[in-house]
């Protein structure tokens, strides 16, 4: 769907209004700014097939999604999940991988698979930036809008953002594994607002998770937009955009109250 095909929506806004729009826009990282390329099921299938019986991305995909959904439900939205795991982020990913292998009843060595997958997803070339991202960020910065990343990610994200040429476009980057707290906790949103020198109500947050991004931001006093590239939430009450180009007009503000 093109940006022009999405009609603007009005919605409740209880924070302070800015005559000239929002002072800052913050972004989630995964599936908002960038995505794995190839997708995780493809890379998992490739590694597991090399270490044991052959599996296809079609087999791995539903299992990966189920285990990831379980991990999301288990996350409490307070202390960062990677720091909370005994042994740190590698141990967390090891536990995740063992669950995937168990569901697949696969014979690969989880230790060897973990080393290969962890290394693969560390490389910036394993990720792609969505086509509109750089232009949107550059135009927002040119207008004087402060930009930041707020992401539930492990310590590899800064290296990935650097490798993709994105870091210099942001005034600050908050990564949960480095902050020690993750979305939807208000704390991580408040820290970023403080670093940017603005009030929470002057910030628009954009992300793909209804719980972590939309509800988390609003509970912290920020405004929020859900980026819904695959169109999964068409019948939801959230303010949605199909891509980041649509965020530019929203950020120009102020938002009208829903009648």
Calculate the terminal CA-CA distance, rounded to whole Å. Answer: 27 Å
- The shape, in one word, is globular
Domain count: 2
The number of distinct β-strands equals 8
| CATH homology superfamily of the largest domain | HAD superfamily/HAD-like
Mean pLDDT value: 89
**Major beta sheet, strand line-up:** 5-4-1-6-7-8
CATH T-level fold name of the largest domain: Rossmann fold
What would you say the CATH architecture of the largest domain is? 3-Layer(aba) Sandwich
Structural key phrases:
2 domains, DNA polymerase, domain 1, two-stranded antiparallel sheet, 6-stranded parallel β-sheet, 11 helices, disordered N terminus
What can be said about this structure in brief?
This protein has helices spanning 40-51, 57-74, 81-84, 88-104, 110-122, 133-142, 157-163, 176-179, 186-196, 210-219, 245-251, and strands spanning 24-27, 34-36, 127-129, 146-151, 172-175, 203-207, 223-227, 240-241.
What this model shows, in words?
By secondary structure, the protein is an alpha/beta fold. The chain folds into 2 domains: 3-33 and 130-251, Rossmann fold (3-Layer(aba) Sandwich), CATH 3.40.50; 37-125, Haloacid dehalogenase-like hydrolase (DNA polymerase, domain 1). The chain is 44% helix and 12% strand. It has helices at 40-51, 57-74, 81-84, 88-104, 110-122, 133-142, 157-163, 176-179, 186-196, 210-219, 245-251; strands spanning 24-27, 34-36, 127-129, 146-151, 172-175, 203-207, 223-227, 240-241. Strands 5-4-1-6-7-8 form a 6-stranded parallel β-sheet, with helices on both faces. The chain is globular, with a radius of gyration of 19 Å. Residues 1-19 and 255-259 have low confidence and may be disordered.
């Amino acid at each position: 769907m093109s940006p022009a095909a999405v009609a603007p929506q009005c919605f409740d806004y209880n924070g302070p209004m800015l005559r000239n729009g929002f002072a800052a826009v913050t972004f989630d990282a995964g599936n908002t700014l960038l995505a794995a390329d190839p997708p995780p099921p493809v890379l998992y299938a490739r590694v597991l097939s090399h270490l044991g019986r052959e599996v296809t991305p079609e087999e791995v995909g539903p299992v990966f999604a189920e285990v990831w959904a379980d991990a999301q439900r288990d996350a409490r939205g307070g202390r960062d999940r990677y720091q909370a795991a005994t042994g740190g982020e590698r141990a967390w990913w090891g536990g995740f991988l063992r669950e995937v292998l168990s569901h697949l009843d696969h014979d690969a060595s989880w230790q060897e698979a973990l080393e290969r997958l962890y290394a693969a997803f560390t490389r910036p070339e394993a990720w792609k930036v969505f086509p509109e991202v750089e232009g949107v960020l550059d135009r927002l910065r040119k207008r004087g809008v402060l930009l930041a990343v707020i992401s539930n990610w492990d310590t590899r994200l800064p290296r990935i953002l650097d490798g993709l040429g994105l870091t210099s476009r942001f005034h600050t980057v908050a990564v949960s594994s480095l902050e020690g707290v993750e979305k939807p906790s208000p704390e991580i949103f408040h820290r970023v607002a403080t670093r940017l020198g603005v009030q929470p109500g002057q910030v628009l947050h954009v992300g793909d998770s209804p719980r972590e991004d939309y509800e988390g931001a609003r509970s912290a006093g920020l405004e929020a937009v859900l980026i819904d590239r695959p169109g999964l939430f068409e019948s939801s009450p959230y303010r949605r955009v199909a891509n980041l180009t649509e965020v530019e007009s929203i950020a120009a503000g102020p938002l009208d109250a829903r009648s």
